[in-house]
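Sequence and fold
=================
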Amino acid sequence: MMLGTALCSSMRSAEDHHERGDVPGWVMITLMSAVLVAALLALAGPALEAMFNQAMDTVGS
């Protein structure tokens, strides 16, 4: 009985292995998203800062 349970358990984990997901793919997507956000921030940062400062000056006045 124990041998059958162990064999079934090992077969199930081998079958489930392909459904666990692609970790390197998720890492690549996360890194690409971070690079995209950094690039957009570098390009739009000065304009966003100017807009924020203008809004704060308007509220402060």
The radius of gyration is 26 Å. The helical segments are 2-16, 23-60. The chain has a mean pLDDT of 80. The chain has two helices and no strands.
